[in-house]
Structures are given as C-alpha cells and as structure tokens.
Amino acid sequence: MFTGFGVDFFIFSLFRRFEAFLICETSGRKRTVGLLLIFALMIPGSIKFLFIFTLAARLLPAIAAEKKTRFFLALPFSRTELFIYSFLLGFLLIFVTNSIGWALFDRGNSPEFLKYFVFYAFYFGMMLIYVLKIGSMMLLPMLILLFDLISPFIAPEIFAVSSQFSPIYQQNQQLSLVVSIAVLAISYVMFVFGRGEKW
Predict the structure, then answer these.
(1) What is the pTM of this model?
(2) How far apart are CA 132 and CA 111, in angstroms?
(3) Angle between helices 139-154 and 48-57 in degrees, nearest 10
(4) CB of 2 within 8 A of CB of 54?
(5) Which parts of 28-112 fold into alpha helices (H)?
(6) CA-CA to 84 of 20 to 30 Å: which in 17, 64, 100, 198?
(7) Distance (Å, rounded) from C-alpha 92 to C-alpha 147?
(8) How does DSSP classify residue 68?
(9) What's the Cα-to-Cα distance from 19 to each of 26, 89, 98, 118, 124, rounded to whole Å?
(10) In this structure, are residues 129 and 183 in contact, taking their beta carbons and an 8 Å threshold?
(11) What is the pLDDT of residues 146-185, one digit of tens each?
C-alpha cells in the first residue's frame, strides 16, 4: 500500500511540476501569437513544417537564447526536467493540433504523426545545440532547412543521399528517426551536462 501511494504521489508530483512549467511558459509569452500558431498547426499539407519549425524555436532553444535558463532552474526545475517538459509541450501541441486538423480537414489521408515528430525532434535538438555552442538560434538551422528544401533542384546528387535521412523528405523514415533521435540526444547531453549548474 505504501508503495502504491509512493508511485501515485510521484506521478501526481510530475503532473504538478509539468503544470507549473506550462504556467511559466505561457504567462510570459504573447498568447495571441501562440493561439495563431496552434491554429496554423491544424492546417494540412507541407506548410505545416514551417509552423513546427517556428514552434520548436519558441520552446527551450528560445529560453536558452534569451538567457532565461537560470530563472527556470531557480523555481526549481532540474535541467533534465526543463528539457523534457519543453520537448513534451511541443510534442503534445503537435499531436493534439494534428489530431484535430486531421479530423476536421484531412480524413481522407492517414495522420502523419511520426513524420512530424521526426522533423520536430531534429530541429528542436539542432536549434538547442546551435544556441549552446554559438549563442544565436536560427541561422544554421534555417540554412539547413533551406538547403533541405531546395536540394532536389540545385543538387540532385546530394539529394539522392540526403533525402534518405532528411527530416522533411524522410525517404527512409527509420533512418530519419534515428538521425533525429541522435541529434536530440546530443542536445540533451549538451544542455544537461555542458553547463556549470547542477541538474
């Protein structure tokens, strides 16, 4: 009975801490922009990648770029919690909005949750790595995204290889997933272990 109570309390505590993170994230942000982004994520089609990219940029990479990490750590959240909660918030937004968008606008096709997850995980990790190493957030990830988009037209030989693990084209989805998870894992290690604060 004590064990069951301990597990229940632990789960309850995790939900409460995630709720506290959501309050911190939404209280200081422009809600109008957030609502527009949520509605935009419901739109079917390839344009959704652009909005997922924007969403990833507004989460933990933005916190790190704006030097607000210490604020969250002082609440206190551990670095691991901050990473997980931020990533989870983006994933839940993508999952929920895509589910609603699929039900309203795109019932004729299968939902592509894994495809969007691969893209989101890759750019969430890439932006965070770039922020931690360079201090800026958008330049390199935007160049990677731009090259990925235009490579079929300007470099078909490179595209034939890169499209296999590309976060957009995902010709080999399993390989794309592995690459995205690897980038995400590197960003986690850099964020949690690469700074002076205790996590």
Answers:
(1) 0.85
(2) 34
(3) 160
(4) no
(5) 31-40, 48-57, 60-65, 69-73, 79-105
(6) 100
(7) 28
(8) -
(9) 11, 10, 22, 25, 21
(10) yes
(11) 999 898 888 888 888 889 999 999 999 999 999 999 999 9
